[in-house]
Amino acid sequence: MFKAVVILSFILGLATLCLCQLNFSPGWGKRSQEECKLNTEAVFYIYKTIQNEIKKLVECEKLTR
Description:
63% of the residues lie in helices and 0% in strands. By secondary structure, it is mostly helical. It has one domain. The protein is elongated and about 70 Å long. The termini are far apart.
């Protein structure tokens, strides 16, 4: 019991030494329209990759039936 009290006191003592201040700028969390450009090449590549994997899965299912 004494050990637990000492550890708890130590942790509370450390907690009192820690101070923090958090500031937010007015534009925090907002994105301008320029940052949200769509990379069509990347989207097309992802689409084709998914489409090819689906074709492979369909072929595997046909072979197992």
